[in-house]
Amino acid sequence: MVFYNEKAGMAAAKTMPDKWDFLPALANHPYPISIILGDHDFIDFGGGMYRKWVTAMPNAHLEMIKNAGQNAWLDDPSQFHRLLLQALSRSTARSLVL
Predict the structure, then answer these.
(1) Cβ(75)–Cβ(67) below 8 Å
(2) Which one, 21, 51, 86, 87, has the greatest CB density within 10 A?
(3) Are 29 and 36 a contacting pair, CB within 8 Å?
(4) Is residue 88 assigned to a domain?
(5) Domain that holds residue 46
C-alpha cells in the first residue's frame, strides 16, 4: 500500500462504470490471449472467475501457477518464464499466419 493514495482512489472511483464487460471485445480479438495467474492471487483466489471468462473466449488460454500470488513472476520465476515463452510463441505463430 506504499503507493496507494486513498483520496486519488476515491476520486477515480467516481468516474468508473459500475460494471466492466470486456468479454465480447476479447472474444472477437484476432490474436491469442494468454492469462498467466497465480492460484493464490487475491483478485481471484483459485482462478474461478478467470476460468469462467476463458470459456467465453475461444482465443484465450489460461495458465495457473501453483502456490503463486499476485506477483507470480516473483513467486515462481522459472514457471512464469516458461509460460510466458509459450504465450509469446502462440502470439508469434498467429502473427505469421496473418
Answers:
(1) yes
(2) 87
(3) no
(4) yes
(5) 30-93
The count of domains in the chain is: 1
Instruction: Note the Cα 62 to chain centre separation in Å.
Output: 8
Distances (CA, A) of 83 to 4, 30, 44: 30, 21, 19
Is position 41 within any domain?
Answer: yes
11 within some domain = no
Q: Which residues have C-beta within 8 Å of that of residue 40, sequence separation ≥ 6?
A: 67, 68, 69
Q: Which three cell numbers stand for residue 92?
A: 508469434
Cell of 11: 476520486
pTM above 0.90, yes or no: no
DSSP structural state of residue 18:
S
